[in-house]
Design a protein that fits this description.
Two copies of one chain form a homodimer. In chain A, strands 1-5-2-4-3-6 form a six-stranded mixed β-barrel. In chain A, strands 12-15-17-13 form a four-stranded antiparallel sheet. In chain A, strands 7-10-11 form a three-stranded parallel sheet, with helices on both faces. The first copy, chain A, starts with a strand and ends with a strand. The first copy, chain A, is an alpha/beta fold. Helix content of chain A is about 40%, strand content about 20%. In chain A, helix 14 packs across helix 15 and helix 17 runs antiparallel to helix 18. At the A-B interface, helix 1, strand 4, helix 3, helix 5 and helix 10 of A face helix 1, strand 4, helix 3, helix 5 and helix 10 of B.
């Protein structure tokens, strides 16, 4: 039973969810026999999306109109006053597979494909998405299931093809604040002649993803065509994966994982590999920080994750090297998009104040990638990477990449700052990465690019009472106050001094 | 950082979710540094709720206004133009317990209490609620956890107290269309002098709950005070459990379970027992229909559920008798609130056309309850129940209860009907309860009280080609068409004839 209405854009940002607003007293509602929370199939000019129904008074949306939330509006490329067809969405068959998973059944390739295809088509509500994400964490995915999910994520999105040969890539499993090696690795690798079409994600539960950080330096929402032109001309790029429609299911699931703070091994592997496979990668270096407050907390966990990841990658013909790195401390000084970008620029420009640890780690990863890709002999990768960085060739390449992506910018500065000082003297013994991240998030990161915090001390430093430990950066006094209250409350856990 | 605004009611029914609408360009948003999907604590006159933020243009909601969805509006008893205080909600600490459950940890009483308390306070988003429901199904709750959940559900709601002595109750685990014995059992029990303050739920995934059905005969949204007066004067009542605030957490979770079609043993037991314990029940009969297409499909499942349920009930000092009943066929003729109410009235009025199976089952359950409660000797309950029904005393009691609840009404009739006829001849061999329920839901039940279907044949009946099998009832032609298409497509599975 189809109903024809006119599109209307009330301009409501429903936190990323697709909502259709209908006049509860309209003939359309009566004809369809609608009552919230029905789900409706909304079709406009060949594009369709499933949206959740919200009933509103006729004063908000006219009886012959269908109002769409911003997410729904953009998904079907709606036009004000344009024609739209609405009908009740039928039962989502693939939800029976989600229920089967909840109750312990394994998901084969076909059910996984059905689920992810419905997810990409926008048919799952937030409640249903959350059930799928939770089920995959509570009933951990086996290797076959992870491979099935990876394949389904690749198949339900766009796929890049490149000339035959090595396509390099790198990835960090995250959880380590400030660990922003990607732009440096890409610049070094591309400067050495590797083809490295890097797509990055935005933050899931952290104060900054590489895409968030990179966005303070250059546009990252590139189309697939634009991304291809950048890579063809410069050998590398650093763009947001979500904008080029590679593994779009992953981006939808990430929004839910972020709201839940749940990020399971299986989905993590499928997320990483699907993006890389869709981007056409053949050789991939993975940075796996391990530490008591990193995402991966123990060597055992790292080993399990690494083994499964290599197993799944092999099935897709991707060569992977996993580097387990020190995840006990933050890397660099800044935490938050713009503050991390400043660290990256200091390294690339070979500035004296550049953070040593960030520089050393980027050189190690770039070296491993150069070796894996056959650009350097075993043991010779780091030296080549170091020379490429020190000579300024990496910096030149980075500027060229930024220019090709749409023009380079300087990262923004925050309006409000507050420095926190040591209350006692002692040696810096430990950082709690999670609490540091939380403080940066309370300060406004990653939504506010300039927000976050700057560390003034490193592990092992001697600190005198009253010496600055960290500075909070915020765009609003409310957020600054919240972050400060949090830091003051958790003072000793965030940066532990030992006398 | 608090912001003071004025309340505004745009009248949006956001499918049961609490939403706050703020002007995205307003000083309030800038001060708080807000961006969707932040969660806000909304306080008005001593009542508070956590609501999800939707950003809207200033044309919808003024810069000094906070618009609330209907669910949020009702939760804080808002008044148009009234003062409201808004601030960012802090991290929900209890979500760490939900994550622990997702990853396999058991939930003790304290974490369970923390989770359910936050849920009742409206602090969980739909995404977070779905994660909790899914985790409790995917990591099945142990007996201790079910007891903890039951206790927490009781503690986070209102609790009824009665004079010392027997407080009787009955419950059906559901999954069997048309199985509407409750009003009959309550009428018989109350007529025999038992005190039976019955609260019922609305449909979770079925075309009608007892509360939905009862609402076609009398008001069921009673306050706790009103319910008490009904029970004190008539000995029994049949009201919606959600309206009297007994185990309010359960009602919140049921909305999510319904959207997911997930209903796990643990939550089922906690749901049933928390409502009964909060209502003050001491003696409880449970109807557990078992059949290939009922909610409980096998004798083994029924046994597990029954054992756990008795174990948990014992911890709370509640005497329970579980009756495993035949769940292979629907009970009565009607499926849907009003059609089931008609069946109930026929039985209570001792009408000739009253469905025998509904009458017999109600008498069995009432008999078991009379025995459990000590009103009849073992083996003498059914006889007492039968006499009470046949004499008209149960009917008189039912009318008195309806009058006390606010006045008795006749159930409504649907605007549109369509009869489906047998395409071949044969004997009625089997019904598929799930497909029958689905057809009734497609026809509009339970949102439309008059919608559903009427069965014209029973198991074992000989049917001639062209003879009526069932009649669909709908309030809209769209729903009637959808239900008809579904029945025609699944004709042979819904009612299987054997030649």
């Amino acid at each position: 039973m189809d109903v024809e209405l006119r599109l209307r854009r009330p301009g409501i940002d429903a936190a990323g969810e697709a909502i259709v607003y209908l006049d509860r007293a309209s003939p359309a509602c009566r004809t369809l026999g609608l009552a919230a929370p029905d789900r409706l199939l909304v079709t406009h000019g060949g594009k369709a999306i499933t949206a959740r129904l919200n009933l509103v008074p006729g004063t908000l949306i006219g009886p012959d109109e269908a109002g769409l939330s911003e997410a729904a509006w953009n998904a079907i490329m709606a036009t004000e006053g344009g024609p739209v067809t609405i009908r009740k969405d039928e039962t989502i068959d693939s939800m029976s597979h989600v229920r089967a998973k909840v109750f312990g059944h394994r998901l084969d390739a076909a059910p996984m494909e059905a689920i992810l295809s419905d997810i990409v088509d926008g048919r799952y509500s937030d409640i249903q998405l959350a059930a799928f994400v939770t089920a995959c964490a509570a009933r951990p995915l086996g290797t076959d299931e992870i491979a099935a999910m990876t394949g389904a994520m690749v198949d339900t999105g766009a796929r890049m093809t490149w000339p035959p040969g090595v396509i390099a890539d790198k990835h960090c499993v995250g959880g380590l604040p400030g660990n922003r090696t990607t732009p440096i690795v890409v610049a070094i690798a591309a400067a050495c002649g590797l083809m490295i079409p890097k797509t990055s994600s935005r933050a899931i539960t952290s104060p900054a993803g590489t895409a968030d950080m990179m966005e303070t330096l250059a546009p990252v929402n590139l189309t697939l065509d634009h991304m291809r032109r950048v890579v063809e001309s410069e050998g590398g790029c650093i763009v947001w994966g979500g904008a080029v429609d590679l593994s779009p299911a992953d981006d939808i699931l990430i929004r839910i994982e972020r709201a839940l703070g749940v990020d399971s091994h299986g989905q993590l592997i499928a997320s990483v590999l699907s993006k890389k496979i869709a981007a056409g990668a053949t050789h991939l270096v993975i940075d796996l920080p391990v530490g008591p407050s990193a995402k991966i907390r123990s060597a055992g966990d790292a080993e399990t994750l690494s083994r499964t990841l290599l197993d799944v990658a092999r099935r897709f013909g991707v060569h992977v090297r996993v580097l387990k790195t020190n995840g006990a401390h933050p890397v660099g000084r800044g935490i938050g998009p713009a503050l991390e970008a400043r660290d990256v620029l200091q390294v690339l420009r070979n500035e004296a104040e550049a953070p040593d640890d960030l520089r050393a780690k980027a050189v190690t990863l770039a070296g491993a990638l150069l070796e894996l890709a056959g650009m350097a002999a075993e043991g010779g990768g780091e030296g080549l990477a170091e020379r490429t960085l020190a000579s300024g060739r990496a910096w030149k390449k980075f500027q060229a990449i930024c220019a090709a992506q749409g023009g380079m910018a300087e990262p923004p500065s925050a309006r409000h700052r507050q420095t926190v000082h040591a209350q006692t003297s002692g040696r810096v013994n430990a950082f709690d990465n999670r609490l540091l991240s939380r403080a940066a998030i309370l300060a406004g990161a990653p939504e506010e690019k300039a927000a976050g915090l700057d560390l003034h001390v490193r592990a092992g430093d001697m600190v005198e009472e009253g010496q600055p430990l960290l500075t909070l950066h915020s765009q609003s006094v409310g957020e600054l106050a919240q972050a400060l209250a949090f830091v003051q409350k958790n003072h000793e856990a965030i940066i532990t001094l030992r006398s």
